[in-house]
Structure formats: C-alpha cells, structure tokens
Amino acid sequence: MAQSPVIAIVDDDEGVRTSLASLVRSLGYEAQAYESGVDFLEHAPGDDPACMIADIQMPVITGDELQAQLIASGRRFPIIFMTAFPSEIVRQRVIAAGAHCYLGKPSSGDEIIRCLEAALAGQAP
C-alpha cells in the first residue's frame, strides 16, 4: 500500500495550523504541523515532506528565511507560502527561490487545494 504524501504545515497561529491540517487530511494526505520554522528544523523527520505550507510572518525565523535555510542545506521541495501581510518584494523573492505559490490570508480552501495538488503533481500553479 502506498504511503500518503506528507504535507508539513508551519505556522505560529494554532488555529491556522489546525484548519490547514484538517483540510490536508480531508484530501487523503498526512499532515505534520509545526509551530515555527525552528520547530520544523529541529523536529521534522529525516525524510523531507512532499510539500510544505508555511506562513511568512513568524517569530525567530520567517518563512522566507526558513526557505533560504532549507535551500542552503540542499533540501528542495515545493513550498506554498501564506501571509496576512502580502508584499510584492517578498513574493518575488520566494517565487524566484522556487516557492510554488504565494497566497494571502485568508485564502479559500479551493485556492489552497489547487496550489497543493499542482505542487504535488509538479505542475505550475
């Protein structure tokens, strides 16, 4: 039996983590939630997730700093960023570095699902 893809959810807002994890599980994927970029770096299992959904604005390590650290260590997988404070400069930077999507908060479930399924299929958003 094939294992379900693992989706890492990194957001400092517990309500957002819970709702995203519920959405991810409703699609048949496994959700692993982390309260910060530091939490992900310290506690994520050895295997990279199939995709990550991450907030941009987080304490200690922002989402784009997390992306840069992952890339610097040779870890590349699709990342969908979400933020309540969209910035064109940040959007351009994370997309140029390989982010799959850059969504504002709140985003519709359909929009998140579209980005997630495209990322897992290796397609453009």
From TrEMBL:
Residues modified to 4-aspartylphosphate: D55
SUPFAM superfamilies assigned to the protein according to its UniProt record, in alphabetical order: CheY-like
SMART domains: REC (SM00448)
Superkingdom of the organism of origin: Bacteria
One Gene Ontology biological process: phosphorelay signal transduction system
UniProtKB keywords: Phosphoprotein
Boundaries of every Response regulatory domain copy: 6-120
Gene3D superfamilies, A to Z: 3.40.50.2300
Name assigned to this protein: Response regulatory domain-containing protein
Organism: Bradyrhizobium forestalis
